[in-house]
Write a structure and sequence with these properties.
Strand content: 25-35%
Strand order of the largest sheet: 6-2-3-4-20-19-18-10-16
CATH topology of one domain: Proliferating Cell Nuclear Antigen
Distance between the termini: 124 Å
Largest sheet: 9 strands, antiparallel
Length: 428
């Protein structure tokens, strides 16, 4: 049989309400873990990217505290889970009730009804008010296995501490619809930038992203030791909930983290209460060195000389390793425009000496890289613009097949005929 009984003062009951309000921002359910020395409230969001835990010391926070789990070992515990809204409705603040002092509570008694002689297991909360009025709440709970997030502070080389009241003033500048928070340190200041990339409000989508940056001087921190030029991104909603709860306790907020994509932990303590929040992070953890002055180097012409020499040497090696394709023995006359005899009579230009240092292929060498063409005289068409065909009114196409069948056309200069004369009868 498990036994859990504790008594709270009105101030302690109000603090539990603040704890439940904070944990409700992370999850709809709250897990309760009772050990012999302390009582813990934990919450884990649905994506398991944020973990929240608030531990209360049995001898310091409570007026009376007793926990005897089934397991008699020292590490025995009692765990259960309940809805956050159900607990919030019970532990609502009653210190300054507008209806008068008669409804203000005098003490709060909590016990767990888990005995074999009882047909129901309940989490019983009794609010003993002034004038002898007692309000009893019996809440159903579910036995669950509580998960805890592990965090190694020894590996967290970045650490800073700041007043929660001062940090609350800064987060008031953040937009309510922003989603992410970027923490960035540079040049004796820390920049908190809240931003979002897209906001959907019904059918309207905000195209321009929201972004608010607040720069905090390092002197405003109680402790600061963090790497500069490193972006650490967390959720704005989680950060705001943590800061608002820490501000109710008037305590300092401590942050521990190593680099982005690794967990970040925020914690604070106050009067027997220890709260810690482990958040997953994103961002860029590559430390960008500050830009250094460019060294004085050679002039532009001198600096480009080695590159040009390298390119020329590569060009020479490329032409030596890859010879041009062999040129065909004969080329069809269809590639020549005009009289072929005139083309032979034209003096060929004196080839200039090839520049071995040039990056371009000369005009004389360009023909060596032309693709080899298959000779097919019967299918070749060309334009006959020779002076011997001036008798025709219009230039004509002739059948190139006649060149293979007649010796006279075979020895004729100019473009091969492409059309039979018998096919043009009737045009005159």
């Amino acid at each position: 049989m498990e036994t859990l009984d504790f008594t709270l003062k009105p101030e302690a009951a109000a603090k539990i309400h603040d704890i439940l309000t904070c944990l409700a921002k992370f999850s709809d359910t709250v897990a309760i873990e009772a050990r012999r020395e302390r009582l813990s409230f934990t919450a884990l969001n649905s994506s398991k990217s944020a973990y929240a835990s608030c531990s209360l010391e049995g001898k310091t926070f409570f007026s009376t505290y007793e926990c005897r789990p089934k397991n008699s070992a020292a590490d025995g515990r009692f765990t259960c889970s309940m809805y956050s809204k159900a607990l919030l409705s019970v532990f609502k603040p009653r210190l300054d009730d507008a209806r008068g002092k008669d409804t203000a509570i005098d003490r709060c008694e909590v016990s767990v009804q888990d005995r074999p002689d009882k047909t129901e297991c309940r989490f019983v909360v009794k609010m003993v008010c002034n004038q002898g009025v007692t309000k009893t709440y019996k809440l159903t709970y579910e036995s669950v296995e509580v998960l805890h997030a592990l965090f190694d502070k020894n590996a967290a080389k970045n650490h800073w501490s700041i007043s929660s009241g001062l940090l609350k003033e800064y987060i008031e500048y953040f937009g309510r619809k922003t989603e992410q928070l970027d923490i960035y340190a540079e040049e004796d200041r820390v920049v908190f930038t809240s931003f979002t990339e897209k906001i959907t409000n019904g059918k309207e989508i905000l195209k321009q992203p929201l972004q608010t940056a607040v720069a905090v001087n390092v002197a405003d921190f109680e402790k600061f030791s963090a790497q500069e030029r490193m972006h650490t991104i967390i959720s704005v909603k989680d950060f705001r909930a943590i800061v608002l709860h820490a501000e109710t306790l008037k305590t300092s907020l401590n942050a521990y983290y190593s680099h982005p994509t690794r967990p970040l932990q925020l914690n604070y303590t106050s009067d027997g209460m220890y709260c810690e929040f482990t958040l997953m992070t994103a961002g860029d953890y590559v430390d960008t060195p500050p830009p250094s002055a460019a060294p004085v180097g050679p002039s532009r012409t001198t600096s480009r000389a080695p590159s040009t020499a390298t390119e020329r040497s590569e060009s020479r090696s490329f032409r030596q390793d890859m010879p041009p394709p062999p040129a065909p023995t004969t080329r069809t006359s269809a590639r020549r425009l005009g009289n072929s005899g005139a083309a032979r009579k034209a003096p060929s230009p004196i080839p200039s000496e090839a520049d071995s240092e040039s990056l371009f292929v000369g005009q004389d060498e360009d023909a060596q890289w032309d693709p080899a063409e298959s000779r097919n005289d019967e299918e070749t068409l060309g334009w006959d613009a020779s002076a011997e065909n001036d008798v025709a009114i219009y230039p004509t196409f002739r059948d190139s097949g006649s060149l293979a069948r007649t010796q006279s056309e075979e020895s004729a200069d100019g473009v091969a005929p492409t059309q039979r004369i018998s096919q043009i009868k009737g045009l005159w």
